[in-house]
Amino acid sequence: MIEKLYWLPTGKLTLDYSSLNQRLEPGKLVTLQIWSYLLETKDGPILIDTGMPESFIENPGYFNNTAYEGLFLPDMRKEDHIVSVLNKIGYKQNDIQAIISSHLHMDHAGGNPLFPNTPIYVQQAELDVAIGNEAYAPPECTQNGLNYRAINGDYELLPGIQLLSTPGHTPGHQSILVTTKHSGPILLTIDLAYTKENYEEEVPFATFDPQLANDSIRRIKTLMAEIHPTHIFYGHDLTQANTQKAYPDFS
Questions:
Q1: What's the mean per-residue pLDDT of the chain?
Q2: For a Cys-Cys bond, which of 14, 168, 219, 224 suits 31, CB 3.0-4.6 Å?
Q3: Which domains does the chain have, with CATH numbers?
Q4: Is 38 helix (H, G, I), strand (E, B) or coil?
Q5: DSSP string, 97-158
Q6: What is the pLDDT of residues 99-119, one digit of tens each?
């Protein structure tokens, strides 16, 4: 069982609102909070996702003159970078015992190269599509040669940390079920569902395979009906982001 789960804000990203709900007409922008999560265990801290890359810092025009110009606008300061966030709460890079990468998109894996020796647990299907593919994400997210620990399907990393294979948003996406001493089981959907309505009402959102995404949501909902999590936290839900307490509060 995990001692504590902390929410770590790691910058913001503006994109089209239709990414959250594809029933909407494109053209309206929305700014999303980007999250990493820190797990305190008896063997040391574990990090879930590493936020956006260093190249986004004070660089809202990162995607200018690319196919993504105007579609993605990073809002990131130096203090939002994962190393700065960890330093602020008393940890150095070498303190992190393991990283769980939900997937290798720009807002989740940008800090991975700054932990070159740390085991990074990621689905093999995600590595297959992402590594070395700069069309998939910025190069920091798709870097070869890190200490990747490829897994296939559901995997118990430690008692209290269940990695759940949830492809759909990406080919190798995984969600995380964390069981803490304080709060019991907590589901971090990450991008299995951006929002509560994606999860509960199957409102379509940005996925590489909509049917596979729905299949993953339905599987996880069935599993959660047996587990009864005390909290389900959606990857980019605007309402939750406004109410979720971050470090030093914990669950």
A1: 96
A2: 14
A3: 4-243 (3.60.15.10)
A4: strand
A5: -EEE-S--STTTSTTGGG-TTS-EEEEHHHHHHHTT-TTTS-TTTS-SSS-EEEE-S-EEEE
A6: 999 999 999 999 999 999 999
